[in-house]
Amino acid sequence: MKRLGILLSGRGSNFEAIANNVASGRLEAEIAAVISNRPEAPGLQIARERGLPAVVMPSKGVAREDYDRSVVAELTKRGVDLICLAGFMRLLSADFCRAFPMRILNIHPSLLPAFPGLDAQKQALEHGVKISGCTVHFVDELLDAGPIVLQAAVLVLDQDTVDSLSARILAEEHRIYSEAIRIVLSGRWRIEGRRVVAG
Q1: In Å, how far from its chain's centre is CA 20?
Q2: 28-60 confidence digits (pLDDT tens)
Q3: Number of domains within the chain
Q4: Is the confidence at residue 165, as pLDDT, over 90?
Q5: Same domain for 152 and 72
Q6: Cα–Cα distance, 105 to 184 (Å, whole number)
Q7: For 110-131, what is the mean pLDDT?
Q8: Which one is catalytic: 108, 127, 137, 174?
Q9: Domain of residue 53, residue span
Q10: Is 108 a catalytic residue?
Q11: pLDDT reading at 199 higher than 90
Q12: Please, is 182 exposed, middle or buried when counting C-beta atoms within 10 Å of its C-beta (0-12, 13-18, 19+)?
């Protein structure tokens, strides 16, 4: 059984969606660790309630390289096959990315390469796009720039606010993240140029 390491900083709704799919058998994997850099993250409590290993690794005041080294060591110790970022509000160092090449996934609330970084939904509304969505991608050393595994489109409505658009995008995030994890864990994919080709 493949082992997932979840990194989160907040409520962990994407983590919860993944955990639900693991529990129901729709996703053949086990969650080996849920790690947060914020001790107060609600996602940690959700992990504890589910009987999953919840690990607090505070990042405040710790140099990025030192922090990342300790997280890499923890994930390695737990035999993690794939790392899933679920609202982990830290940029990973190059050393972290090199420790797990093509083994780190992130989900971002836009159709990358549009609107990388923070507040993607706000960026989309301010830009006036008619379609936004979400993207599951491999993590590399550049911000929101790794090869794309899956995307889902969401119509932007004239009356949308950041909250209403975010809610509809989040529903799609919950749907496609587990599907992307399933594709990656299957091993039946390859990268051609920048393209992730399944099958």
Answers
A1: 15
A2: 999 999 999 999 999 999 999 999 999 999 999
A3: 2
A4: yes
A5: no
A6: 9
A7: 97
A8: 108
A9: 1-100
A10: yes
A11: no
A12: middle
Angle, vertex CA 149, rays to CA 88 and CA 54, nearest 5: 30
pLDDT at residue 89 greater than cutoff 90 = yes
Confidence (pTM): 0.96
Q: Cα 47 vs. chain centroid, distance in angstroms?
A: 16
Do 93 and 112 share a domain, yes or no? no
d(CA 137, CA 98): 16
Antiparallel, parallel or unpaired: β 82-85 and 148-155: unpaired
Residue 142 tokens read as 């550049």
Query: Are residue 92 and residue 127 in the same domain, yes or no?
Result: no
pLDDT score recorded for residue 67: 97
Q: Does 67 lie in the same domain as 34?
A: yes
CATH number of the domain within which 139 lies:
3.40.50.170
Longest dimension (CA), the chain: 49
